[in-house]
């Protein structure tokens, strides 16, 4: 019963629209304005026979309401490959990259470093020297920790008697002054 009413309402509204178009066309012709302007090859849609397709099911009222509305959302999700290609696009090469304005030369060695960070070259030199010092201490560092203060003595330096002394068989590096090991405060 509901489908019969739905088809009746749809066909009635379709016929009503056709008759209203015909009445408007007749009113335009009978008034002194004449027929509405149109191209010579264009036919009036109300005078053309309508083709009704019996195979398509009738549409509901909600379908006709939302038929002309386009939703501004993507139908399909972009794949990871497409997203990465858009992000690192060659046409917009380095589009998202920014220039670093905080790169300065190191005052000790001349290599470049970021402002507020240690120079990588100087840090590697200190790390290498520290590993050599630890290797020179040997097992004393791991198993027999000295109870007194540790002093590293390089070539050409004097030993102080009351400290645990580790002798290094090379000259002291220029960036590693002896005053660096003095206690302050």
UniProtKB/TrEMBL annotation:
GO cellular component: mitochondrial large ribosomal subunit
Example GO BP: translation
Transmembrane stretches, start-end: none
Keyword Ribosomal protein carried by entry: yes
Pfam families: Ribosomal_L32p
Keywords from the UniProt entry: Mitochondrion, Ribonucleoprotein, Ribosomal protein, Transit peptide
Function: Component of the mitochondrial large ribosomal subunit (mt-LSU). The mitochondrial ribosome (mitoribosome) is a large ribonucleoprotein complex responsible for the synthesis of proteins inside mitochondria.
UniProt name for this protein: Large ribosomal subunit protein bL32m
């Amino acid at each position: 019963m509901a489908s019969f009413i739905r088809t009746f309402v749809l066909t009635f509204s379709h016929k009503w629209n056709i008759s209203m178009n015909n009445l408007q066309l007749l009113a335009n012709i009978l008034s002194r304005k004449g027929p509405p302007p149109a191209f010579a090859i264009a036919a009036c849609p109300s005078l053309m026979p309508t083709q009704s397709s019996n195979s398509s099911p009738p549409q509901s009222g909600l379908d006709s309401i939302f038929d002309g509305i386009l939703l501004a959302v993507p139908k399909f999700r972009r794949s990871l490959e497409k997203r990465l290609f858009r992000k690192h696009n060659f046409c917009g090469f380095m589009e998202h990259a920014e220039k670093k304005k905080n790169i300065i030369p190191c005052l000790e060695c001349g290599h470049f470093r970021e402002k507020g960070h240690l120079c990588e070259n100087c840090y590697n030199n200190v790390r290498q020297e520290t590993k050599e010092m630890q290797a020179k201490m040997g097992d004393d560092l791991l198993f027999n920790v000295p109870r007194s203060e540790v002093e590293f003595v390089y070539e050409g330096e004097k030993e102080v008697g009351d400290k645990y002394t580790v002798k290094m068989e090379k000259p002291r590096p220029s960036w590693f002054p002896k005053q660096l090991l003095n206690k302050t405060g």
